[in-house]
Each structure stands twice: as structure tokens, then as C-alpha cells.
Specification:
By secondary structure, the protein is α/β, with parallel strands linked by helices. The chain is built from 15 helices and 15 strands. The protein has a four-stranded parallel β-sheet, sandwiched between helices. Helix 5 (about 175-185) packs across helix 9 and helix 12 (about 395-410) runs antiparallel to helix 13 (about 415-440). The longest helix has about 35 residues, at about 110-140. Residues about 305-310, about 385-390 and about 445-450 have low confidence and may be disordered. This is Recombinase family protein.
Amino acid sequence: MVAIYTRQSVDKKDSISIETQVDYCKHEAINEEIKIYTDKGYSGKNTNRPAFFNLMEDIKKGLITKVVVYRIDRISRSIVDFAQFINTIEKYNCSFVSSTEKFDTATPMGRAMLYIIVVFAQLERETIAERVKDNYYERLKKGGIGGGPAPYGFDIKRENINGNMFSVYVPNENIFVVKMIFEEYEKSYTTLADIQRMLKDKNILTAKGKSWDNAKLSSLLKSPAYVKADMLIYNYYNEQKAIISSPISDFDGTKGCILAGKRESNSRKYADVQNHTLVVSHHEGIIPSHTFIACQNKLKKNTQIKNTFKGKYTWLTGLVKCGYCGYSMSVRFGKTKDGNTGYFTCSGKYLYKICDKKQTHRIKDVEEYVDKFIIEKIEKASHKTPDKKVDNSYITRILEIENKINNLINSLEDAKESSSKYIHQRINALDTKKQEILKENEKNIVEKEIPLPTVKEYKAMNFQDKKNTAMSIIKAVRLTDGDIDIVWR
């Protein structure tokens, strides 16, 4: 039986249709029984296609004596894949015919010519891919959208900017949800789970009509598309070793950003932005930079807490220390009249044998003691503390000085010995100026104050929320025989 294999990646006006391919191939199977295998909507970059898989299975069963295609690139544009295909059909005594490229696979010269054509087909595919990639990044550098769906809260619209048409993000009716998510998550006591519950209660779904989960919320919070790009954002992504393609002057606190780069298939979006390209786009930023960065730091801190403090017996896990040796207090259980009771015991004594103080504290007693003082702290705190704005005007001057220093360091390589002395003096002078600016602005470097939860909110918290709150306001709980000392952050 003769197999006619057809493939069409996209249905375009100038592409060869499946029907036309079949008509050409039928000329190679006159008076023979035929079976048609069709993969529509599949690329030729590999052979992961359902109809091709069925074809290979039938060849291995001995049902196919000849495979006919319109052109050999219908099989694959990969040299490796095509070579494997030829080896397989030869193993099962099956011949191969291209209806528009007459090659006889039974001869060495025919096989060589086939491989040469496949080499050029792969070269063409790689050249197109490289050209598409170059165009993609060129659009990004000009502030345009590279492609893909708009982030939640935005639509895509074509606009004329400085005489050129660009696809840009424009806010839609969901942008208020984005603002609410950032504002809520910035609060020290709010977790992703809290926001998830809040959105569920308000019946707010994702752009695809699905319920929010931690992964979707985390991805939204990490997206720089929402932030007002200023010098804080420039510094943040510069420290993350992202490739910043926009000039410093574009970071004026009005526009949002676009971040693009290749990532591993099993890695999370925005998890590692090193060597990713960041550009200031044409769309308006929505979220203040200090709010965005506070959320990034909180996401990173929560990851560290999640990986480090996995205790499930107390919400004070990771905070309780021995007041004598400084080692962490671990949890142990003992049978009492109240049942199986949890105690804090010194790791320095029982694990490392360096502490000679004998002390045990019931978990319940310590939690009640700390609970009382957290509530007292909340009651004393003002819940109407105005936000303090971050003064970052000096950062531009610092960056300019650093750029000058870097240029001078680079020039030292080609400098003559007589002039290198003056370059070193200039570098030292610039560095002194930089230190003066930093010292000058120490008192102005402030973080946005975040209010504590209310007593009602605190008392209603679940185990995980209470643990996160304790971690955010307590540095350590030191236990000694008969005493508990809380060290606040």
C-alpha cells in the first residue's frame, strides 16, 4: 500500500493546500491502493505530529511499501529527524518519493541529494527564526509590544506614535482589580491566599474566566507592565542583571515596562530576569514604584520563609531562640494529663551539646504570651499613619557618576602611564562625590510605612497568616528559665 503524507502548518493564501498536495502525490501511485495521512496546523521543525506517528506505526507493521510526499520538507526541516525517517523506512523495506523533487532513495547519490536539500531547508527555517527574533526585539526597543496576549487589566490597541504605528496596552475595566491586588498585598499581614479569598468573595475571575490561584497572582504581581518606571525601577532591574535597552531619561515615573527573554519551559515567568530585556513602553504605568518593589521584596521573602520555616506545630517557628546560647528552640512532645503536649527545647543543649541550661517551655504558654504583646502593639499603633514617599531624586546623580567612573576605568587599558595617574585621581574624586551624595541623602531614604492589621483582623487570622505577621514584626523570641523576651523588628 502507498502512503501519501501531507502537512500544512498554516492555511495562507499562497501556501500549498492539503488537497493540492494529495493531487500531486496521486500521480506516483497509479493503480495502487493508497492511504492518506494528514497533519494540518503542524510545523516542520520536528516530527511530533499525530498523523506522522500513525504513518510510522503502519510502516513498522509492514503495511506501507512506499511513502509519497509533495516535497521532502513535508516530512521535516530537521536533518536529524529526516535522517531517522530515512533509516526507519529503509529498515522496513519501504521506499520514499517526492512528487516534485525526483530522488531515488535506493541509490547513494539520491540519498546524498536528499540530505543536501534538508540541510538548506533547516538553514531556511533557522534564518527565518533568527529574523523573527531580531524583529521582535527591535519592536521592543522602540517601545512596541513583542506579541502575545495583553496582561490582565489591559487591552491591545494600535496607535500612531511619532508617525509610526505601534500596538500598545490600554487599561480596561479590570485595571481597578490590579490596583486592589497590589495595594492589598503590600500590607504586611496580607498573603496571596487572603487575596485569592477576597477575589473569590467578590466573584472576580481571571481574563480567561477562571478562579485566581497563587501562581496567577504571583505572576501578575511580578509583571513590570503595571509599574510606573522611575529610577527606583531602573536600579531594581539593573541589580537583577536585566538588559535595560531604554535610556535612563525614559525612566521618568510615567510609563510602564515590557520585560522579554527566553526562559526554561519548567521555570516560572519573571522568576529570574537575568539577561532578559527590559524596555520602557508607550503605555501609562499604573502602580507606584515603591509599591511594586515592596511587593517584589515580600514575594522573595515569602519564598525564603516557605523554604526555611516549615514548622507546622507553632506559628512562632523560626523565631524562638535560647536566651543563653542563641540556638533555635526546637519542638518536642511529651505526654501530660492534658494529652500530647508540645514544648520548646534548646537545640544547643540536645543537638549540639554546647548549652548547659535546662529549660522547657510549653508552646501554648509562649504563644499566649507573645499573642498578648502583639495585640498590645497593634492597639498602640496608629492606623491612620500617612504614607511616606520615597525620595529618589539623588539616584540619577549617583548613576551618572557611576557611568563616568566605569568609562574612566575602561579608558585605563589604553592610557599611557603619564595620563593614568590623572585618570586615577579623577576616579577617586568622583567616588568621593558619590559618597558625599549618599551621606547627604541618608536621612531622606525612607520606606513606605505599612500599617499593622487591626485587632479584629489579627484575631481572625489563620495559622499561616499569623506566622507571616509574626515574621514581619518580630525579630526573635528569646527564652530563658522563667522569662520570655520579645525582640521587635
